[in-house]
Specification:
With about 325 residues, the protein is mostly helical. The protein is built from 13 helices and 4 strands. It has 2 domains: about 140 residues, Orthogonal Bundle (Peroxidase, domain 1); about 130 residues, Orthogonal Bundle (Peroxidase, domain 2), CATH 1.10.420. Keywords: Calcium, Disulfide bond, Heme, Hydrogen peroxide, Iron, Metal-binding, Oxidoreductase, Peroxidase, Secreted, Signal.
């Protein structure tokens, strides 16, 4: 069994609003086993699906960068209205059934106590740790949102330049260092061929020739049952949350344009070099950036609700 290096990180510099309303151990009295129950669900899923870590990281990011970390991404569309799940960038988001499993267990033990937004945050943290990444303390106390609108989903895409992508992060009070750090989550991710096809159909001097050939082989195997194959974004350790992604893009082995741009652009390449050379630095900064992202526009106090079913708003409270 792989031995995991444990890095405990407790942050006391979180944004003032979060400090006032979110806190580590929020459920200590109302649902003492909340965090261990979420972790158990994640552990069970990881035993049969190592890719769930990447899925949860993506879900968490896509949730927080729309209306804030309010679990609006979990709402199902219905005959009357569409939800964020219908937006193009979210059509390939997955892992919802894991959140459902954790929520069902929590509702059986602590009805209407633990928010779906906190479940996403906790599950992502646990998946990161169980995949070899750092363990970090997560402040909890988020509430679930009352709106899920596909027209509000406007996320930075894989073909953007570093400066273009940074505009989206800066709008959420995230720094360039935060952006580069969080994109390091691609060390456990995959991308569909449609996201990088333009880089392999014509000569691209920024991509290693060997990688380009490998990707052409993968994408050339598209079929009726698999029209848009996927490739690992980290060719070295695709299921481990480590700093290999930064080493890879330093060797022109970035799959998506934005990934390779990180190593080439003067705005970000110093940060990339630092992470490639120092695994401990990346682990520490990744934990910090994840906590910071998890505090984006959170609902606290009496705002929002605690959903009983993460896929639907509570009755009579829907807007």
């Amino acid at each position: 069994m792989m031995r995991l290096k444990v890095t405990f990180v407790l942050f006391l510099w979180i944004l003032p609003l979060a400090l006032a309303n979110l806190r580590v151990g929020f459920y200590r009295r109302s649902c003492p086993n909340a965090e261990s129950m979420v972790r158990a669900a994640v552990r069970r899923r990881l035993t049969r699906d190592k890719s769930i870590t990447a899925a949860l990281l993506r879900m968490h990011f896509h949730d927080c960068f729309v209306r804030g970390c309010d679990a609006s991404i979990l709402i199902d569309s219905n005959r009357k209205s569409s939800s964020e799940k219908d937006a193009g960038p979210n059509l390939t988001v997955r892992g919802f059934e894991l959140i459902d499993e954790a929520k069902k267990a929590l509702e059986a033990t602590c009805p209407s106590k633990v928010s779906c937004a906190d479940i996403i945050t906790l599950a992502t943290r646990d998946a990161v740790f169980l995949s070899g990444g750092p363990f970090y303390f997560v402040p909890t106390g988020r509430r679930d949102g009352l709106v899920s609108d596909p027209d509000e989903v406007n996320l930075p895409g894989p073909t953007l330049t570093v400066s273009e992508a940074f505009q989206a992060f800066r709008a959420k009070n995230m720094s360039m260092d935060d952006m580069v750090t969080l994109l390091g989550a691609h060390t456990v991710g995959v991308a569909h061929c449609s996201f990088f096809l333009d880089r392999i159909t014509r000569p691209d001097p920024t991509m290693d020739r060997g990688l380009a050939a490998k990707l052409r082989s993968i994408c050339g195997a598209a079929s009726g049952s698999n029209p848009d194959p996927t490739a690992f974004l980290d060719q070295a350790t695709p299921f481990a949350l480590d700093n290999q992604f930064f080493k890879q893009i330093g060797l022109k082995r970035g799959v998506m344009k934005i990934d390779q741009e990180l190593a080439n652009d003067p705005l970000s390449r110093r940060i990339v070099s630092g992470f490639a050379a120092n695994a401990t630095l990346f682990r520490t900064r990744f934990a910090q950036a994840m906590v910071k992202m998890g505090n984006i526009q959170v609902l606290v106090g009496n705002a929002g609700e605690i959903r009983r079913n993460c896929r639907v708003f509570n009755p009579r409270r829907r807007i």
